[in-house]
Amino acid sequence: MTTSAAIAEKKKVDFLPLKGTDYVEFYVGNAKQATHYYQTAFGFEPIAYAGLETGRRDAASYVLQQNKIRLVLTAPLTADSEIAEHHKKHGDGVRVIALEVDDATYAFEETVRRGARPFMPPTVESDEYGQVVRSGIHIYGDTVHIFVERKNYHGVFLPGYRPYRSLIPTIPTGLKYVDHMVGNVGWNEMNIWVRFYEEVMGFQNILSFDDKDISTEYSALMSKVMSNGNGWIKFPINEPARGKKKSQVEEYLDFYNGQGVQHIACATDNIIETVRQLRSRGVDFLSVPSTYYDALLDRVGKIDEDVAALRELGILVDRDDEGYLLQIFTKPVEDRPTLFYEIIQRKGARSFGKGNFKALFEAIEREQMLRGTL
Predict the structure, then answer these.
(1) 0.90 surpassed by pTM
(2) Is 170 inside a domain boundary?
(3) Which CATH number covers residue 324?
(4) Could you tell me how far CA 345 lies from the centroid of its own chain?
(5) What is the per-residue pLDDT across 341-352, written as a single tens digit (0 to 9) for each?
(6) Same domain for 181 and 306?
């Protein structure tokens, strides 16, 4: 069954309709400084704030937005909080993947009934702009899903937040929405979480890659892509596989001290312009040998983009039955070799760049060798 056919079939039985990714919340060491980085390097505009000045005593949070992508950067204000413990263990990383729903109470009750471990019971939050209902469940590692029902709210973000304006102008880079988010899980854990998303969340496994698909001379991993009913939410799940040396997933698990979000793929309508903007602002990307482009058109066929520009920027290309895609991956965006970003542009393709796996993983291994962790 093709990817699109699988998604069409899933729509018929979707018991948990999801309207999209509402926000992604990071726990970080210094939210103010992280906000400056995401604003100036990635082009996210700060729009809201909660902290001491708004009556919050345990943490400070900044909300940033670019088109449909909304990030929340939260730092602890005390040493003994859950946020501080999370950051001590994991470093900067994703704590919350929030999903917008029509009914957060139903989403919670139904997923818990199907086996989810509760994190946050349905909670009504109100202010002069209306009310939001949120609930949540645990997923892999210390990561959680929050269900957000905001149809009766007209504020800047959530109750407890006030509008925030930066003193410097924000120049966007063309990032549009979250295309997918990848989770790294431990040995023999992938199928456990595949079943979780199938049975608890109503997702479907639309693509699978084994260690023969994703391997180099030294390392390997396995991955399965989970998609919700309308295809708007996709969560690939990675598991390490045996190889001669340590895989990127093993490195992540070591430095993150557990399972978590490996990378966030952000979609753009013009990857060449977006990557040029990001590079000019200091975002570091993985590089592939120039020879990758020598036979590019023989492998993927006719494309609209200038191969010379793709070669200059290190952008990868792959094709499936429905079109082609262009993608590139940043280096980790913090000192621990954990979270990174993918920039992706789809020209019809619904796949995830299987033809680029070898070049990508060899590029990651070169970085691992520099870090002494391969």
Answers:
(1) yes
(2) no
(3) 3.10.180.10
(4) 15
(5) 999 999 999 887
(6) yes
Question: Residues 180, 185, 189, CA angle at the centre, nearest 5°?
Answer: 120
User: Is 367 or 253 the better-scoring residue by pLDDT?
Assistant: 253
Structural domain that includes position 336: 175-371
Residues 87 and 38 in one domain: yes
In angstroms, the CA 36 to CA 341 distance is 17
Q: Is the pLDDT of residue 176 over 90?
A: yes
Tell me the pLDDT of the chain averaged across its residues: 91
**Is residue 1 a part of any domain in this protein?**
no
Share of the chain above pLDDT 90, in %: 78
Degrees (nearest 5) of the Cα angle 83, 87, 91?
Answer: 155
Cα 329 → chain centroid? 12
Name the nearest CA neighbour of 86 among 257, 254, 240: 257
When divided into structural domains, the chain yields a total of 2
Contact indicator for 343, 333 with CB cutoff of 8 Å: no
- Under DSSP, the state recorded for 139 is -
